[in-house]
Specification:
The chain is of the alpha+beta class. It folds into two domains: 5-140, Endonuclease, Chain A (2-Layer Sandwich); 148-270, Arc Repressor Mutant, subunit A (Orthogonal Bundle). Helix content is 47%, strand content 19%. It contains twelve helices and ten strands. Strands 1-7-6-5-2-3-4-8 form an eight-stranded mixed beta sheet, with helices on both faces. Helix 7 (161-172) crosses helix 8 (186-196). The radius of gyration is 22 Å and the shape is elongated.
Length: 271
């Protein structure tokens, strides 16, 4: 008989469910916290998990993936066929995790989370059949964020290993990267790290547009905003033909002198 699960958080619960299951997993109508937990478990170091098919509310998906850190890691999972995401067309009674031979109904109470579990064969088969029907009727969710592995690889190859190392360190120091006024977004991070390494605006914006982070126009607008706040400045660099290009440089002494591990914190404080 299947036993219920009670854990301190969703990540622990999902990991426990994965460890005792086999075959592909269905995640149906997850909350934003549950979506994030699925991505964290799938990208974790505790061993591989089965391929995941996620059916979720479109609004919850869009809000969750507004965070570049999470979205880019999700894009890696999708790109390697470890995750598929489609949008629900109707509400469900419970958030479900459906595995081979078991169904888990996820319940969150206060600081703890539980999974009410059944391995009744008839119930499991009926639930999986319902998931299949919903999946076939659902629309694929288009994630516009590029995979983080591609972002890192192309940054190193096209701009340089030093800026890639700084970019990685800054991302690792952040809990989220979203342009909602409460932190640094991916374009701001790219420009600030580029300025720390005296990179040309043309080079970093072309890279950003080519890899799918944002358009050159968005990079240019954000550059102007960072200039207006006094964080960066530019130096004209003559070229053989055409207008001079702009080299990005840090203008704020505190930011220029900050250790890379503290770079994001100092920049966010200045902004």
């Amino acid at each position: 008989m299947a036993s219920n699960l009670i854990e301190d958080n969703l990540i622990q619960l999902l990991r426990t469910a994965v460890d005792r299951s086999s075959g592909d997993l269905w995640v149906v109508d997850p909350t934003q916290r549950a979506i994030r937990a699925v991505i964290d478990v799938a990208n974790g170091d505790d061993g591989p998990i089965p391929a995941v098919r996620m059916l979720a509310d479109e609004g919850a998906l869009k809000s969750t993936f507004d965070d570049f850190l999470l979205a880019s890691r999700t894009a890696d999972l999708i790109d390697t066929d470890r995750l598929s995401v489609r949008t629900l067309r109707e509400e469900t009674a419970n958030s479900l995790l459906v595995a081979e031979g078991e169904v888990f109904a996820i319940v969150t109470t206060g600081d703890r989370v539980a999974a009410l579990t059944t391995d009744d064969a008839s119930f499991v088969d009926t639930t999986k059949a319902g998931c299949e029907r919903r999946w076939e009727a659902a629309d694929s969710f288009r994630l516009r964020t590029p995979p983080i592995s591609e972002v890192r690889d192309t940054l190193g190859a096209e701009i340089g290993d030093d800026i890639r190392a700084d970019f990685d360190t800054v991302l690792d120091s952040l809990d989220a990267a979203r342009g909602d006024g409460n932190g640094l977004d991916e374009v701001t991070i790219s420009l600030l790290v580029a300025a720390r390494n005296d990179v040309l605006l043309y080079d970093i914006s072309k890279w950003g547009e080519d890899v799918g982070i944002a358009s050159k126009a968005t990079f240019s607008r954000t550059k102007t905003q960072l200039e207006d706040t006094g964080l960066i400045t530019t130096e004209k660099v003559p070229i053989d033909v055409g207008r001079p290009r702009l080299r990005l440089q840090l203008a704020d002494d505190g930011l220029a002198g900050a250790d890379i591990d503290e770079f994001a914190t100092v920049a966010a404080d200045r902004l």
